[in-house]
Amino acid sequence: MVDVRAWSEATTDEVLAAVDEDEDLSVVFLADRHTMQSPTRSLLALSTVWEDEGDLDPVFYQELVESPEPREFRTAPAAVHSVHANVTLGSMGFAEFATTASAEPDQVLRPV
Q: Does the pTM of the predicted model rise above 0.85?
């Protein structure tokens, strides 16, 4: 947990840039303004793994270029452990959790 005022207005890109060197980190959970103001206290889950579209050859990666993997979704605090464990172990991908969250009326992933 980091509680530093300098990070209070950080963008998701700034947070991801700060953790970019950690090769073992696959997902980051942020408690942002939305978290503190929402009744569910949903955290922002950010994937640390993504492809830079500029590095992809559009001939071979057309589908990925046209519809990139989701980089973020909201999750209830009770679902954080499941997301972290499954993404880290490779049992489920970040995109699977993002898809599940997006299907919810408030777009917040909840534990099963």
A: no
